[in-house]
Every structure is written in structure tokens, then in C-alpha cells.
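Hey Z.,

So I finally got round to the flavin-adenine dinucleotide thing we talked about over coffee. Here's the setup:
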Amino acid sequence: MSHVLIIAEHDGRQLNLSTAKCVSCAVQIPNAQVTVAVFGQDIEAVAASAALIRGVTRVLRIENPASVHLLSAVIAPQAVALARCAYTHVFGPSTTFGKDLMPRIAALLDAPQISDIMAVDSAHQFRRPIYAGNAVLTVDVSNEAIVVGTVRTASFDTAPATGSAAVERVSVDAALPLHTRFVALSGASSDRPDLQTASRVVSGGRALASAENFKLVYELADALGAAVGASRAAVDSGYAPNELQVGQTGKIIAPDLYIAVGISGAIQHMTGIKDAKTIVAINKDADAPIFESADLGLVGDLFTLIPELRAQLARS
Ligand SMILES: Cc1cc2nc3c(=O)[nH]c(=O)nc-3n(C[C@H](O)[C@H](O)[C@H](O)COP(=O)(O)OP(=O)(O)OC[C@H]3O[C@@H](n4cnc5c(N)ncnc54)[C@H](O)[C@@H]3O)c2cc1C
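And the result:
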């Protein structure tokens, strides 16, 4: 039997959907018992949400004032102390949180890490994309070490909230480092849906031509209740902040609807949306590569089409 420990991603109040996607991955391991570890302080509600995820057998609530900001340097030794107890696998999401934390866990365990797990063949064989998603690598790992993995959240559905696992409050005996401390969090706060988990995303590209014009993308997104994304060209040109970048070196997402506005469809961008269910492209060049992948295409000038679309949405 495999015992999988999943490190929950949350903001202290809400569980991130990436955790339920990790559970969907973990339950594909034959005979897996899935435990979710929730680190933090005053995290009763988060732990209760984790207990509802179908497929979870146990939730461990590990309260510690030092964990309040989920610094990976502080969480990693605690996760390692837990993992050494009884676990065969330790998984986290392939998000900014997981990409920061999981390599530390792997290093402390002296275990191999498999990044971006997109499919499970067995307890010790997984598949992951390489070359910007153009090839798939099958990775076999030794069954002598604990398997540490990041889960490519775009490849797995969100496990439904129909479970009823037990929540146990546990304490972990681990020496915490003094070299890393929380100073401040500087990040854009937004009421818009989270780009990595939103079901609808509107992204803008270089064609927007300025940060001022990029407001068109925000307005269309707001009309659709969508998150906002951007191509690297739009980010590099300063039209949109870095955290909105979608693609190989940005966020990998799998929304139900992805609207690409003035984006050419370079391979490095498309690798970030290859699991999107419906792709809509708005581009004035009928030969733009994005039309090869789009389910729906609008050929025309975005500065005409976006206001028209918004007007139609306002009428409907
Ligand atoms: C190692 C590496 C990693 C990379 N990672 C990423 C990544 O993570 N994400 C990413 O996006 N890119 C990434 N890139 C960059 C990528 O190769 C492209 O350069 C980038 O995606 C282009 O952005 P764009 O489509 O906005 O711009 P462009 O390629 O310049 O396309 C702009 C499009 O807008 C259309 N257009 C122009 N004006 C209008 C108008 N008025 N109305 C409608 N359409 C119009 C044009 O026809 C064109 O198709 C990476 C590149 C490298 C080498």
C-alpha cells in the first residue's frame, strides 16, 4: 500500500483548489491512502475544507506560530519530519508555492523529485511533459526512497468536496531554521478570480500596445467573471504584471474558456494553455498560429471587437 502525504496550499483562510487537484493525482496510485497536511496557525477552517475532499483519508492540522506565512524554509523540515513517519510519497502542487517548497523537501529527504506529474502509471512510474509540452517523459523512480513530486494541476480535475475525512491535530518535532524570516508580502491584491484555478481566463498580448489599453482586457474579463492573463511580450513590455504571465515560463492553466486577445500563439505561450477546454482567439492576422489551436476565432482589430463583445455581453 502507498501512503501519500499532500502538503496543502492555502492563504490562512481558504484552501487553494490546487490541493484537490493533487488529491485527484494521488488517488490514481493503486491502493493509495491519502493524507493532507495543513501547516499554519488558526487553520481550523482550512483543515475542515481539506477533510471534505473526496479521496482524502486523513487530515493533519499542524499549528505553529512559525508557520503562519507558509515560508518554505520553515514548512520543509516539518513536512520532512512527518514524511519520515510513515509515508511513501510526498506531493505538492506545481504552483509557485509547490515549486518553492517541494525541492526543499526532496533535498532534506535526499530523495529524487519528479516535477510536473501529468499522469500516474504506477506507484513508482509517472509521466511528465518536457520540451515545452512537445514530448512526454516516462519516469521510473526507485521504491527505496520516498517519492517527492509536484503535480501539474492543469492535468487533473478538482476532486469534489464530498468526502468526510477525520481531522487530527498533531505537533511535529522539527528544528526550524533561523536564517529565513518573513518581512513583508508585496503582491497585487485583486477581487478577480485566481488565474491558476479560474474557469474562465481572458489574456492580452503585445497587440494591446500599452498598459492603458490593457484595461480593455480587464474590462472584458470582469464582464465574464474571468481571471486575467498575459503573454510574455505583454509582461516584458510592462503592459501587465509578471504574475499574470501564461506559458512555459509563466502559469500553466486549464480553464474551461480561454480568450486570447492579440496573442500570436507562440509555442511557449500555447504550452501554458494546452489543457484549456475551449480556446477563443481574437487576432487581426488570419494566418496567426493561434488559429491552428483555437476552437473559435475572430479575425479583426481587437480595438473594435472587444468593445463590440462587451456591448453584446451587456445586452445579454
Ligand atoms: C525560453 C522562452 C520562454 C518563453 N516563455 C513564454 C511564456 O511563458 N509565455 C509567453 O506568452 N511567451 C513566452 N515566450 C515568448 C514567446 O516566444 C513569444 O515571443 C510571445 O508569446 C509573443 O507574445 P504575443 O503573442 O503577445 O506577441 P506577438 O507574437 O508579437 O503577437 C502579437 C499578435 O497580435 C496580433 N495583433 C496585432 N495588432 C492587433 C490588433 N489591433 N487586433 C488584433 N490582433 C492584433 C498580431 O497579428 C500578432 O499575432 C518565451 C520565449 C522563450 C524563448
